Amino acid sequence: MEFLSQVINGLGIGSIYALVALGYSMVYGIVQLINFAHGDIIMVGAYAVFVILVMMNLPLWLAVLGSILFCGIAGVVIERVAYHRLLVHDAPRISLLITAIGVSIFLQNLYQLLFGSDPKSMPKMFTFAPLQLGGIQLTSSTIINISVSVVMMAGLQLLVSKMKIGKAMRATSEDAGAAKLMGINTNTTIAFTFGIGSALAAVGAVLYCNTYPQIKPVMGGLLGLKAFVAAVLGGIGSIPGAMLGGYLLGVAESMTNAYISSNLTDAVVFGILIIVLLVKPTGLLGKNTREKV
């Protein structure tokens, strides 16, 4: 029973990684950019909740919606200000990567300047009695995390496969030049992708604040890195892969904490990534792509 309990706890933690990993996968799928500033969008979303819920004392639903909206807009602004000109002029990928790291450092320092470097405490947001399932006790945060992540992935999959903007995203991902010739506004599509990815990161931030009620300006660093590992583990560019990678990462962390040592959690997580990539370089659900000549 303890083993199963640890698996479920791991799925709860992994749900947060999975939501953030979706943003990494979407952006990479469209423009082949590893947006390392994406982890700090989680921090931005967490502070948006803090400002609306704690400092302004407004209702929880408004804090959640405000955080999602603010992060979505922030994602679009970051794409337009930091990446747009580089993408338009087909800049080397290393330039985009350095810019992403610069945006990450800028956001961390900006929020340290605005709110200070001391951690801020968050109130418990979603609370109800734990659910007893056989001999396993499911906490409210675990149930909410898993449920929300599944709903978000299903909604995103539906958007990409059925809606017009989703088809434009797939066309841009496949061949941006051909998509332009077919009348698709690729600039708008890329900006929309950044916005949706950042909004998902805000949902992850809300779940994170509910699970670990403390925030600080550098919180997005390691969390974003683990979400990136989850995206690569599942196959970056794949929506189901990002979810699978997030869940596996969460379970690996939970098992390591329970049966090995909490000090080795990060080592085990990155060790698993190395082993998987040695066996399957494209990730668990990734596909091999051949360069056209």
UniProtKB/TrEMBL annotation:
Cellular location(s): Cell membrane
UniProt keyword list: Amino-acid transport, Cell inner membrane, Cell membrane, Membrane, Transmembrane, Transmembrane helix, Transport
Transmembrane segments: 6-26, 33-54, 60-82, 94-115, 135-160, 190-208, 228-251, 258-279
Keyword Cell membrane: yes
Protein name, UniProt field: Branched-chain amino acid ABC transporter permease
Chief location of this protein within or outside the cell: membrane
Bilayer topology: Multi-pass membrane protein
Family as reported in the entry's similarity comment: Belongs to the binding-protein-dependent transport system permease family. LivHM subfamily.
Organism from which the protein derives: Caproiciproducens galactitolivorans
A Pfam family it matches: BPD_transp_2
InterPro entries: ABC_transp_permease, BCAA_transport_permease
